[in-house]
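README, section 4: Worked example with a bound small molecule

Sections 1 through 3 covered apo chains. Here we extend the same pipeline to holo records, where the ligand is supplied as SMILES alongside the sequence. The molecule in this example is zinc ion. Nothing else about the input changes; the structure line simply encodes the ligand pose together with the chain.
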Amino acid sequence: MQTSSNSVKTIIDKRKKEFFDYLRLDSVSTQNRSIEPTVKYVTELISSTGGDFQVLDDLGGNPVVYGFFKAGPKGNADKTVLFYNHYDVQPEDPLDEWETDPFDPTVIDGKLFCRGVTDNKANFILRLYAIEYLMQSEEGLPCNVKFLVEGEEENGSPNLDAYLKKYADLFKSDGCIWEFGGKNEKEQFVIETGVKGMAYFDVFVESADVDIHSSLGAVVDNAAWRLTHALASLRDKHNHVLVDGFYDDIEQPSASAQQAVKEKKVSQDKIAAIYGLKHPFITEQLDWTAEEALAFYPTMTICGLLSGYTDEGTKTVLPRKASAKLDCRLVPGQDPLKIEQLLRQHLDKNGFADVKLDLLKGSKAFRSDIDHPFVQTVKESAEEVYGTSSEVVLSPTNPGTGPMFSFGEHLGIPVASSGCGHAEGKAHAPNESIRLTDFEQGTHHMVEFLKKFKDA
Ligand SMILES: [Zn+2]
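The generated complex, written as structure tokens:
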């Protein structure tokens, strides 16, 4: 590593109070807490690092903060990287499971505990530190850096697409470093270059105006049977989705993406142990591997079921209504609106026209070209900090969902992740944490990345 560890450390020590004050802001977007002071604080962090900012709030929702740092005189002003972060955090409950005060940053055994620290405040801070370090160095900042810091990520980023569309020129850049990133359970540094999309549905059946004495079950059907039959028609017992056309639009992944996924081994035993699984992986019955399923295939999941009497003892009743929550994680090529249409057609065709379907949330998947020089620069710079290629893993598609598609669609740029997360970081859960050594390494990665990106 060429970077002097001391100087990055000096910046980390010098700006510790500023970082901790950022963590103390309980910016829970779903509960509308502390949004205004947090936006102000984000702009102050950008200016105290030497950047310019704009607060964008004309399209509704929580404001989006734009930040800009100009390349130094020796840098390459033709290259611009975009850092995507969010200042909002998840609610802290259940409170009694926290071992520290959720909004009082606390260091124990080299770990920093606080709500929002890994998701996503520390990653924003370490990127600012990397910029400060480079601005102070003899070479100066090697390229232009832009920031997009939004405040609704934990709420599904409902307005981000509109802001990216309207302000595409403002955010114009050559590549985007995603908000999260870090190490997996094998301590490998994982670079994610894509995410799955989502189609989330309410499924609902009503069979009468009132609940009925179950003796009438001899002649009257009920909502619970209607719903379970409808749901059962969607997937066979070998776990293939039976909706006509469901798999049709899937884009074939590139050869390099397939190769990267092949190398990224999933341990069924480990996952079974973590969750106490009672059944083997469903991929045992499918034509694709667990690794391929996680990266390249869509899912269909019953997330919840509700009907009739479910308390203690007996109550003999024909439930008049039944509902389910259904989510489909989509892959590149699939469109949530088309999936809704296909599901509707399937239900109608199979005699379930009375089963209502509401698309609650839809987003498309995104996958960067992993051979793109931007992605390769993120990888090569990571290898300088984290070790050889076996410690740095490229993951073409994270099995989760995020607003990456909008960046690809409106800015036309590749996306890759880098951050200081660790496998036990407990994002969204009590006792969320980062490891301070990861935080320092993450800062070094961004320093090395910006230096290399200049000429990439
Ligand atoms: Zn989150």
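What to look for in the output: Residues 90, 119, 154, 427-428 surround zinc ion (CB under 6 Å). DSSP finds 13 helices and 20 strands in the chain.

Section 5 describes how to batch many such records.
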